[in-house]
Amino acid sequence: MEQSRTSRNKQSNRWKRNIKYVLLFLLIIFISVGSYLIYEVYTAANKSYQELERADNKSDLRKEAITFSDDPISMLLIGVENYSTGGKDGRADTQIVVTLNPETKKVTMTSIPRDTRVKIDEIEAYSGYHKINAAYSFGSLSGYGGSKLTVEKVEELLNIPIDKYVAVDFDGFRDIIDTLGGVTVDVKEGFWEENIYQNNERIYFEEGPTHLNGEEALAFVRMRRLAVNYTYPREERQRQLIRAAIKETISAGTIFKANEISTILGKNIETNLKPKEIYHLERSYSSIGEDEMETIHIEGTNQRVEGLSFFIPNEDNLNDVSEQLKQQLELTNPQKSIPTIEEKFDQIYKEVNQS
User: Bridge-partner residues for 165, per DSSP?
Assistant: First the structure.
């Protein structure tokens, strides 16, 4: 009897040791896989990293460099249309200024209309007035830097510093949405748009909650030529999609897709966000809700100038938008002396009236 009990105790001890070894093995696997995923994302983020070659790596409109974890920051999201140019020197068809305040946890999104008329004098070959979406291609073609010139034009338009930027092309956009498993948006009005990946076959969007894959999501934010764009503008659809993508990104399963996401980061995204800053953003804003996200609109009219159609912002509204963003960034007066919004509008309207 005693021998039997001893035998059972030995078996029990072996079983406990085996369980410990199994748990230890699983822990090692978990740590190894986790470390591998972190390494993959870190490596890809480094490949995507592209500074703007600014003095002290900060905007000229900043008196001091920001402390990323403490200060409110601004970020420009740039969607690059380069499929028609073979993946090179595309246009910045989407430009959204995002402000993030780490203390209030508030986020604002301001869409810059792609046809906004701006003056480009940084590059002699393209000197003059152009649509703001052309800044990216001019900067890229000249070697000045597509993202650099785009950031500078947005800074001049809104009279605020742009601290960080993220530029993603159409392929990267599509692939990220697919990797996340798609996104769900509430389509407010039905419409259709061509699918550039499927011989321009039409994709139809019906009113109501709709789950979109990457190609559908791209078509959803691209449509701008139909009449419905006036009542359901692309800027609104772009913000809807960003909110939906954020919701999917912070879901529990995203970490297991880190390897796929890292591949996309390395190929299709350019940013001056460092890997540790990306990690901080995820940690600080992953639980943000709809109540903390505010949309700020730029109002204006479409006008023809010298035979071309431009978007001309309303002067009072643009000044108000600038002040709202400065408040979110806790700014007073910018460091660099640049033309005020009123001075810029005087020049714009003078040239519009002369044409």
Answer: 76
The reply to whether 162 and 78 lie within a common domain is yes
Whether residues 162 and 279 share a domain: the answer is: yes
Domain membership of residue 187 (yes or no) is yes
Q: How many domains does the chain have?
A: 2
pLDDT per residue as tens digits for the range 146-184? 999 999 999 999 999 999 999 988 888 898 899 888 999
pLDDT at 132: 96
Q: At 322, which CATH number?
A: 3.30.420.590
Is residue 15, in this structure, part of any structural domain at all? no
pLDDT digits (tens, 9 = 90+) for 279-313: 778 777 766 766 778 889 999 999 999 899 999 99
Amino acid code (one letter) for 147: S
Counted residue by residue, the chain has a size of 355
Domain encompassing residue 187: 181-250
The H-assigned helical ranges of the chain are: 2-48, 134-142, 146-158, 170-179, 214-222, 228-231, 234-249, 258-268, 275-285, 315-328, 341-354
DSSP string, 69-114: TTS-EEEEEEEEE-GGGTTSS-EEEEEEEEEE-TTT--EEEEE--T
